UniProtKB/TrEMBL annotation:
It comes from Dichotomopilus funicola. Belongs to the class I-like SAM-binding methyltransferase superfamily. gTMT family. Residues 271-280 are annotated as: SAM motif III. One of its GO terms (molecular function) is methyltransferase activity. GO terms for biological process: methylation. Residues 139-148 are annotated as: SAM motif I. Coiled coil: none annotated. This is Gamma-tocopherol methyltransferase. Keywords: Methyltransferase, S-adenosyl-L-methionine, Transferase. InterPro entries: Erg6_SMT_methyltransf, PiNMT-like, SAM-dependent_MTases_sf.
Length: 395
Protein backbone atom coordinates (compact mmCIF):
# COMPACT_ATOMS: atom_id res chain seq x y z
CA UNK A 1 0.00 0.00 0.00
CA UNK A 2 1.35 3.47 -0.82
CA UNK A 3 1.98 5.93 1.99
CA UNK A 4 -1.13 8.05 2.56
CA UNK A 5 -0.78 11.80 2.07
CA UNK A 6 -1.56 14.48 4.63
CA UNK A 7 -5.30 15.03 4.34
CA UNK A 8 -6.34 18.27 2.67
CA UNK A 9 -9.28 18.76 4.92
CA UNK A 10 -8.66 17.02 8.22
CA UNK A 11 -11.51 18.82 10.00
CA UNK A 12 -14.17 17.63 7.58
CA UNK A 13 -17.67 16.96 8.74
CA UNK A 14 -17.65 18.65 12.08
CA UNK A 15 -21.10 19.20 13.50
CA UNK A 16 -22.36 22.03 15.70
CA UNK A 17 -22.09 19.69 18.64
CA UNK A 18 -18.55 18.55 17.91
CA UNK A 19 -17.43 22.15 17.35
CA UNK A 20 -18.96 23.21 20.65
CA UNK A 21 -16.96 20.54 22.48
CA UNK A 22 -13.66 20.92 20.63
CA UNK A 23 -10.65 20.04 22.80
CA UNK A 24 -6.91 20.48 22.55
CA UNK A 25 -5.17 17.24 21.60
CA UNK A 26 -3.01 15.01 23.64
CA UNK A 27 -3.16 14.04 27.25
CA UNK A 28 0.04 12.05 27.45
CA UNK A 29 -0.23 8.69 29.16
CA UNK A 30 1.96 9.23 32.22
CA UNK A 31 2.38 5.55 32.94
CA UNK A 32 0.88 2.48 31.32
CA UNK A 33 -0.83 1.67 34.63
CA UNK A 34 -2.46 5.12 34.53
CA UNK A 35 -3.66 4.37 31.01
CA UNK A 36 -5.13 1.04 32.14
CA UNK A 37 -6.91 2.82 35.00
CA UNK A 38 -8.42 5.28 32.50
CA UNK A 39 -9.52 2.38 30.27
CA UNK A 40 -11.23 0.70 33.21
CA UNK A 41 -13.00 3.93 34.22
CA UNK A 42 -14.04 4.51 30.62
CA UNK A 43 -15.68 1.09 30.24
CA UNK A 44 -17.18 1.22 33.73
CA UNK A 45 -18.85 4.54 32.88
CA UNK A 46 -19.68 4.08 29.22
CA UNK A 47 -20.84 0.48 28.93
CA UNK A 48 -24.52 1.21 29.54
CA UNK A 49 -24.32 3.77 26.73
CA UNK A 50 -22.52 1.37 24.42
CA UNK A 51 -25.24 -1.17 25.05
CA UNK A 52 -28.02 1.30 24.37
CA UNK A 53 -26.49 2.84 21.25
CA UNK A 54 -24.48 0.06 19.71
CA UNK A 55 -25.87 -3.16 21.20
CA UNK A 56 -24.19 -6.08 22.94
CA UNK A 57 -21.23 -6.25 20.54
CA UNK A 58 -18.64 -3.51 21.02
CA UNK A 59 -16.91 -4.14 17.73
CA UNK A 60 -17.07 -3.03 14.13
CA UNK A 61 -19.60 -4.27 11.63
CA UNK A 62 -18.36 -6.01 8.48
CA UNK A 63 -20.16 -5.34 5.20
CA UNK A 64 -18.29 -7.45 2.65
CA UNK A 65 -20.31 -6.77 -0.50
CA UNK A 66 -22.02 -3.83 -2.17
CA UNK A 67 -25.36 -5.41 -1.41
CA UNK A 68 -24.50 -5.93 2.23
CA UNK A 69 -23.37 -2.30 2.50
CA UNK A 70 -26.70 -1.22 1.04
CA UNK A 71 -28.98 -3.46 3.04
CA UNK A 72 -27.48 -4.98 6.16
CA UNK A 73 -28.00 -3.57 9.64
CA UNK A 74 -25.12 -2.94 12.01
CA UNK A 75 -26.27 -5.92 14.10
CA UNK A 76 -26.04 -8.26 11.11
CA UNK A 77 -22.72 -6.73 10.13
CA UNK A 78 -21.33 -7.34 13.62
CA UNK A 79 -22.21 -11.02 13.31
CA UNK A 80 -20.65 -11.04 9.83
CA UNK A 81 -17.39 -10.04 11.51
CA UNK A 82 -17.59 -12.93 13.97
CA UNK A 83 -18.23 -15.34 11.09
CA UNK A 84 -15.26 -13.98 9.22
CA UNK A 85 -13.08 -14.57 12.27
CA UNK A 86 -14.39 -18.10 12.69
CA UNK A 87 -13.61 -19.01 9.13
CA UNK A 88 -10.25 -17.20 9.05
CA UNK A 89 -9.22 -19.41 11.95
CA UNK A 90 -11.10 -22.47 10.67
CA UNK A 91 -13.10 -22.62 13.88
CA UNK A 92 -16.32 -23.61 12.31
CA UNK A 93 -19.01 -26.23 12.38
CA UNK A 94 -22.28 -26.83 10.64
CA UNK A 95 -24.16 -24.43 12.89
CA UNK A 96 -21.77 -21.63 12.02
CA UNK A 97 -22.15 -22.29 8.29
CA UNK A 98 -25.92 -22.20 8.59
CA UNK A 99 -25.85 -18.96 10.61
CA UNK A 100 -23.43 -17.37 8.15
CA UNK A 101 -25.55 -18.41 5.20
CA UNK A 102 -28.70 -16.99 6.74
CA UNK A 103 -26.98 -13.68 7.38
CA UNK A 104 -25.74 -13.64 3.82
CA UNK A 105 -29.16 -14.02 2.29
CA UNK A 106 -30.06 -10.35 2.51
CA UNK A 107 -26.64 -9.30 1.28
CA UNK A 108 -26.65 -11.42 -1.79
CA UNK A 109 -30.30 -11.58 -2.77
CA UNK A 110 -30.21 -8.25 -4.57
CA UNK A 111 -27.21 -9.25 -6.67
CA UNK A 112 -27.72 -12.88 -7.43
CA UNK A 113 -30.91 -14.13 -5.86
CA UNK A 114 -28.95 -16.85 -4.10
CA UNK A 115 -27.54 -17.18 -0.64
CA UNK A 116 -23.77 -17.44 -0.34
CA UNK A 117 -22.06 -17.81 3.02
CA UNK A 118 -20.28 -14.46 3.08
CA UNK A 119 -18.06 -15.37 5.96
CA UNK A 120 -16.67 -18.25 4.01
CA UNK A 121 -16.15 -16.47 0.71
CA UNK A 122 -12.54 -15.62 -0.11
CA UNK A 123 -11.18 -17.28 2.98
CA UNK A 124 -8.72 -20.09 3.20
CA UNK A 125 -8.01 -22.67 5.87
CA UNK A 126 -11.65 -23.66 6.28
CA UNK A 127 -11.83 -26.89 8.19
CA UNK A 128 -13.52 -27.95 11.33
CA UNK A 129 -12.34 -27.68 14.88
CA UNK A 130 -13.72 -30.79 16.51
CA UNK A 131 -15.85 -30.61 19.60
CA UNK A 132 -17.15 -33.62 21.38
CA UNK A 133 -19.80 -33.90 24.08
CA UNK A 134 -17.07 -35.04 26.49
CA UNK A 135 -15.00 -32.03 25.74
CA UNK A 136 -16.79 -28.86 24.65
CA UNK A 137 -14.60 -26.39 22.81
CA UNK A 138 -12.94 -24.22 25.46
CA UNK A 139 -12.59 -20.60 24.44
CA UNK A 140 -11.06 -17.62 26.23
CA UNK A 141 -12.59 -14.32 25.05
CA UNK A 142 -10.07 -11.67 26.05
CA UNK A 143 -11.45 -8.14 26.53
CA UNK A 144 -14.98 -9.47 26.20
CA UNK A 145 -16.97 -6.24 26.62
CA UNK A 146 -20.47 -7.07 27.81
CA UNK A 147 -20.17 -10.59 26.43
CA UNK A 148 -21.96 -10.33 23.07
CA UNK A 149 -19.38 -12.48 21.31
CA UNK A 150 -18.88 -14.71 24.35
CA UNK A 151 -22.54 -15.66 24.31
CA UNK A 152 -22.67 -15.98 20.54
CA UNK A 153 -19.76 -18.43 20.45
CA UNK A 154 -21.30 -20.45 23.27
CA UNK A 155 -24.59 -20.53 21.42
CA UNK A 156 -23.45 -21.47 17.90
CA UNK A 157 -20.56 -23.74 18.86
CA UNK A 158 -21.94 -25.20 22.09
CA UNK A 159 -18.62 -24.02 23.50
CA UNK A 160 -17.54 -23.27 27.04
CA UNK A 161 -16.47 -19.65 26.84
CA UNK A 162 -14.77 -17.57 29.52
CA UNK A 163 -14.85 -13.82 29.02
CA UNK A 164 -12.41 -11.53 30.80
CA UNK A 165 -12.52 -7.77 30.95
CA UNK A 166 -10.78 -5.11 32.99
CA UNK A 167 -14.15 -3.49 33.73
CA UNK A 168 -16.15 -4.77 36.71
CA UNK A 169 -19.20 -2.99 35.36
CA UNK A 170 -18.95 -4.95 32.11
CA UNK A 171 -18.81 -8.21 34.08
CA UNK A 172 -22.04 -7.25 35.85
CA UNK A 173 -23.79 -6.36 32.60
CA UNK A 174 -22.46 -9.48 30.86
CA UNK A 175 -23.76 -11.68 33.68
CA UNK A 176 -27.15 -9.98 33.63
CA UNK A 177 -27.50 -10.37 29.86
CA UNK A 178 -26.32 -13.98 29.99
CA UNK A 179 -28.80 -14.91 32.68
CA UNK A 180 -31.56 -13.35 30.61
CA UNK A 181 -30.45 -15.38 27.61
CA UNK A 182 -30.08 -18.65 29.48
CA UNK A 183 -32.69 -21.23 28.69
CA UNK A 184 -31.28 -24.53 29.92
CA UNK A 185 -33.03 -26.28 32.73
CA UNK A 186 -32.13 -29.53 34.38
CA UNK A 187 -34.07 -31.72 36.80
CA UNK A 188 -36.54 -28.93 37.46
CA UNK A 189 -33.78 -26.74 38.87
CA UNK A 190 -33.25 -23.45 37.14
CA UNK A 191 -29.58 -23.21 36.31
CA UNK A 192 -29.62 -19.47 35.94
CA UNK A 193 -32.06 -16.70 36.70
CA UNK A 194 -32.40 -12.96 36.32
CA UNK A 195 -31.21 -12.02 39.79
CA UNK A 196 -29.08 -15.12 40.18
CA UNK A 197 -26.54 -14.48 42.87
CA UNK A 198 -26.74 -18.10 43.91
CA UNK A 199 -28.13 -20.64 41.48
CA UNK A 200 -29.28 -24.17 42.11
CA UNK A 201 -27.69 -26.91 40.07
CA UNK A 202 -29.09 -30.31 39.31
CA UNK A 203 -26.44 -31.93 41.51
CA UNK A 204 -27.58 -29.84 44.47
CA UNK A 205 -24.40 -27.79 44.65
CA UNK A 206 -24.64 -24.03 44.51
CA UNK A 207 -23.33 -21.99 41.66
CA UNK A 208 -22.11 -18.45 42.08
CA UNK A 209 -21.60 -15.62 39.63
CA UNK A 210 -18.07 -16.82 39.10
CA UNK A 211 -19.30 -20.06 37.57
CA UNK A 212 -20.62 -20.95 34.15
CA UNK A 213 -24.09 -20.00 32.95
CA UNK A 214 -25.57 -22.44 30.46
CA UNK A 215 -26.79 -20.79 27.30
CA UNK A 216 -28.41 -21.93 24.07
CA UNK A 217 -29.71 -25.28 22.95
CA UNK A 218 -26.28 -26.79 22.32
CA UNK A 219 -25.39 -26.56 26.00
CA UNK A 220 -22.84 -23.80 25.55
CA UNK A 221 -21.64 -22.07 28.69
CA UNK A 222 -20.33 -18.63 29.57
CA UNK A 223 -18.63 -17.11 32.56
CA UNK A 224 -17.10 -13.71 33.11
CA UNK A 225 -14.14 -12.65 35.18
CA UNK A 226 -12.92 -9.15 35.99
CA UNK A 227 -9.25 -9.48 35.14
CA UNK A 228 -6.46 -7.42 33.65
CA UNK A 229 -5.47 -9.45 30.59
CA UNK A 230 -1.82 -8.92 31.42
CA UNK A 231 -2.39 -11.30 34.35
CA UNK A 232 -4.23 -13.97 32.37
CA UNK A 233 -1.16 -16.20 32.05
CA UNK A 234 -0.79 -16.80 35.79
CA UNK A 235 -4.53 -16.64 36.49
CA UNK A 236 -5.60 -19.44 34.15
CA UNK A 237 -2.52 -21.54 34.68
CA UNK A 238 -3.27 -21.51 38.39
CA UNK A 239 -6.97 -22.17 37.79
CA UNK A 240 -6.76 -24.99 35.27
CA UNK A 241 -3.19 -26.12 35.10
CA UNK A 242 -1.12 -26.11 31.94
CA UNK A 243 -2.41 -29.52 30.94
CA UNK A 244 -5.91 -28.34 30.08
CA UNK A 245 -5.34 -25.32 27.92
CA UNK A 246 -7.84 -23.44 25.76
CA UNK A 247 -8.76 -24.61 22.29
CA UNK A 248 -9.17 -21.01 21.20
CA UNK A 249 -8.03 -17.65 22.52
CA UNK A 250 -10.26 -15.00 20.95
CA UNK A 251 -9.49 -11.30 21.05
CA UNK A 252 -11.61 -8.77 19.24
CA UNK A 253 -10.70 -5.09 19.33
CA UNK A 254 -9.07 -5.28 22.74
CA UNK A 255 -5.37 -5.85 22.06
CA UNK A 256 -4.90 -2.31 20.78
CA UNK A 257 -5.67 -1.21 24.38
CA UNK A 258 -2.92 -3.34 25.91
CA UNK A 259 0.39 -1.65 26.72
CA UNK A 260 2.44 -4.86 26.53
CA UNK A 261 1.44 -6.65 23.35
CA UNK A 262 4.39 -9.04 23.39
CA UNK A 263 3.20 -10.29 26.78
CA UNK A 264 -0.26 -10.94 25.36
CA UNK A 265 1.10 -13.17 22.60
CA UNK A 266 3.31 -15.02 25.10
CA UNK A 267 0.31 -15.57 27.38
CA UNK A 268 -1.87 -16.72 24.48
CA UNK A 269 0.79 -19.26 23.54
CA UNK A 270 1.07 -20.38 27.16
CA UNK A 271 -2.69 -20.84 27.61
CA UNK A 272 -3.48 -22.58 24.32
CA UNK A 273 -3.44 -26.35 24.17
CA UNK A 274 -1.12 -27.80 21.50
CA UNK A 275 -2.92 -27.26 18.19
CA UNK A 276 -5.02 -24.45 19.73
CA UNK A 277 -5.78 -21.23 17.86
CA UNK A 278 -5.53 -17.52 18.48
CA UNK A 279 -8.21 -15.52 16.67
CA UNK A 280 -7.76 -11.78 16.43
CA UNK A 281 -9.44 -8.65 15.08
CA UNK A 282 -7.98 -5.22 15.69
CA UNK A 283 -7.19 -1.65 14.73
CA UNK A 284 -3.87 -0.73 13.11
CA UNK A 285 -1.93 2.14 11.67
CA UNK A 286 -0.78 1.81 8.05
CA UNK A 287 2.86 1.01 7.32
CA UNK A 288 5.33 3.88 6.91
CA UNK A 289 3.16 6.80 7.85
CA UNK A 290 4.64 10.26 7.52
CA UNK A 291 4.72 12.46 10.61
CA UNK A 292 2.06 14.78 9.25
CA UNK A 293 -0.46 12.06 8.60
CA UNK A 294 0.36 10.37 11.87
CA UNK A 295 -0.25 13.56 13.84
CA UNK A 296 -3.44 14.42 11.97
CA UNK A 297 -5.03 10.99 11.78
CA UNK A 298 -3.58 8.52 14.25
CA UNK A 299 -2.78 10.68 17.27
CA UNK A 300 -6.39 11.74 17.92
CA UNK A 301 -7.46 8.10 17.68
CA UNK A 302 -4.82 6.95 20.17
CA UNK A 303 -5.70 9.85 22.41
CA UNK A 304 -9.49 9.59 22.34
CA UNK A 305 -9.74 5.80 22.23
CA UNK A 306 -7.24 5.31 25.08
CA UNK A 307 -4.68 3.38 23.06
CA UNK A 308 -0.96 3.01 23.61
CA UNK A 309 0.96 3.48 20.35
CA UNK A 310 -0.89 1.62 17.59
CA UNK A 311 0.91 -1.20 15.77
CA UNK A 312 0.96 -2.26 12.14
CA UNK A 313 -0.43 -5.62 11.07
CA UNK A 314 3.09 -6.89 10.46
CA UNK A 315 4.02 -5.94 14.05
CA UNK A 316 1.37 -8.38 15.32
CA UNK A 317 2.59 -11.13 13.01
CA UNK A 318 6.14 -10.57 14.26
CA UNK A 319 5.10 -10.61 17.91
CA UNK A 320 3.00 -13.74 17.44
CA UNK A 321 5.70 -15.69 15.65
CA UNK A 322 8.31 -14.56 18.18
CA UNK A 323 6.02 -15.99 20.87
CA UNK A 324 6.08 -19.33 19.05
CA UNK A 325 2.79 -19.17 17.13
CA UNK A 326 2.31 -19.98 13.44
CA UNK A 327 0.29 -17.86 11.03
CA UNK A 328 -2.94 -19.70 10.22
CA UNK A 329 -5.04 -17.08 8.40
CA UNK A 330 -4.66 -13.48 7.30
CA UNK A 331 -3.72 -10.81 8.01
CA UNK A 332 -6.78 -9.87 6.00
CA UNK A 333 -7.23 -6.11 5.74
CA UNK A 334 -10.96 -5.34 5.70
CA UNK A 335 -10.79 -1.59 6.33
CA UNK A 336 -13.02 -0.72 3.39
CA UNK A 337 -15.65 -3.18 4.54
CA UNK A 338 -15.83 -2.02 8.16
CA UNK A 339 -15.45 1.75 7.89
CA UNK A 340 -19.19 2.26 7.59
CA UNK A 341 -19.26 1.54 11.33
CA UNK A 342 -18.09 5.06 12.03
CA UNK A 343 -20.56 6.71 9.68
CA UNK A 344 -23.31 5.06 11.69
CA UNK A 345 -21.62 5.82 15.02
CA UNK A 346 -21.04 9.46 14.12
CA UNK A 347 -24.72 9.94 13.34
CA UNK A 348 -25.77 8.02 16.48
CA UNK A 349 -23.85 10.38 18.73
CA UNK A 350 -25.35 13.59 17.35
CA UNK A 351 -27.31 13.89 20.54
CA UNK A 352 -26.78 16.85 22.91
CA UNK A 353 -27.40 14.86 26.08
CA UNK A 354 -24.67 12.39 25.12
CA UNK A 355 -22.09 15.14 24.66
CA UNK A 356 -23.20 16.73 27.93
CA UNK A 357 -22.75 13.36 29.64
CA UNK A 358 -19.31 12.93 28.06
CA UNK A 359 -18.38 16.45 29.18
CA UNK A 360 -19.45 15.61 32.75
CA UNK A 361 -16.91 12.74 32.66
CA UNK A 362 -14.07 15.13 31.95
CA UNK A 363 -11.65 15.46 29.10
CA UNK A 364 -11.46 11.72 28.29
CA UNK A 365 -15.20 11.65 27.61
CA UNK A 366 -15.02 14.41 25.03
CA UNK A 367 -11.80 13.14 23.47
CA UNK A 368 -13.56 9.80 23.02
CA UNK A 369 -16.45 11.29 21.06
CA UNK A 370 -14.15 13.53 19.04
CA UNK A 371 -12.14 10.45 18.07
CA UNK A 372 -15.13 9.13 16.12
CA UNK A 373 -14.46 11.82 13.55
CA UNK A 374 -10.78 10.92 13.48
CA UNK A 375 -11.68 7.27 12.83
CA UNK A 376 -13.67 8.28 9.76
CA UNK A 377 -10.84 10.47 8.56
CA UNK A 378 -8.23 7.75 9.13
CA UNK A 379 -10.25 5.22 7.16
CA UNK A 380 -10.90 7.72 4.37
CA UNK A 381 -7.17 8.48 4.11
CA UNK A 382 -6.02 4.88 4.40
CA UNK A 383 -3.84 5.73 7.40
CA UNK A 384 -6.00 3.81 9.86
CA UNK A 385 -6.59 0.12 9.13
CA UNK A 386 -8.63 -2.84 10.35
CA UNK A 387 -7.61 -6.47 9.96
CA UNK A 388 -8.36 -9.98 11.13
CA UNK A 389 -5.79 -12.74 11.52
CA UNK A 390 -5.38 -16.14 13.14
CA UNK A 391 -2.48 -18.11 14.56
CA UNK A 392 -1.99 -21.64 15.79
CA UNK A 393 0.18 -23.36 18.36
CA UNK A 394 2.14 -26.38 17.21
CA UNK A 395 0.33 -29.63 17.90
C1 LIG B 1 -13.72 -2.25 22.11
S1 LIG B 1 -14.11 -3.30 23.46
C2 LIG B 1 -14.29 -4.88 22.64
C3 LIG B 1 -15.27 -5.78 23.35
C4 LIG B 1 -15.51 -7.15 22.73
N1 LIG B 1 -14.28 -7.87 22.49
C5 LIG B 1 -16.32 -7.10 21.46
O1 LIG B 1 -15.76 -7.41 20.40
O2 LIG B 1 -17.51 -6.79 21.53
C6 LIG B 1 -12.53 -3.46 24.28
C7 LIG B 1 -12.55 -4.37 25.50
O3 LIG B 1 -11.21 -4.56 25.96
C8 LIG B 1 -11.23 -4.57 27.38
N2 LIG B 1 -9.89 -4.29 27.90
C9 LIG B 1 -9.10 -3.23 27.64
N3 LIG B 1 -7.93 -3.34 28.31
C10 LIG B 1 -8.00 -4.50 29.01
C11 LIG B 1 -7.09 -5.20 29.87
N4 LIG B 1 -5.88 -4.72 30.18
N5 LIG B 1 -7.50 -6.38 30.38
C12 LIG B 1 -8.72 -6.90 30.09
N6 LIG B 1 -9.60 -6.29 29.30
C13 LIG B 1 -9.24 -5.11 28.75
C14 LIG B 1 -12.26 -3.53 27.74
O4 LIG B 1 -12.69 -3.67 29.06
C15 LIG B 1 -13.34 -3.86 26.69
O5 LIG B 1 -14.14 -4.88 27.19
Amino acid sequence: MSTPQVPQNPGEETTDLSKRYDIPLGLAHTTMQALKDRIKVHYDLASDYYLKLWGEHIHHGYWPTAASKATESKETAQLNLIHLLLTTAAVTNEAVQVEAASHATAATAADTGTAVPIAVANDTHVASTERTPQHPLRILDVGCGVGGTTRYLAKVLGAQVTGITISGKQVQIAQRLSRAAAITKSGGNVLSNDEGVVLNRADGATETDAEFITIGEKGGQVKFVELDAEKMGEYFTAEAGDAQGFDVVWISEALSHFPNKALFFQNAHRLLRPGGKLVLADWFKAEELGEGVFDADIKPIEDGMLLPPLCTQQDYVNLATTAGLQVLGGPKDISLDVSKTWDISWSLIQNPSLWAFAFSQGRDGIAFLQAFRAMRRGYANGSFRYAVMAFSKNA
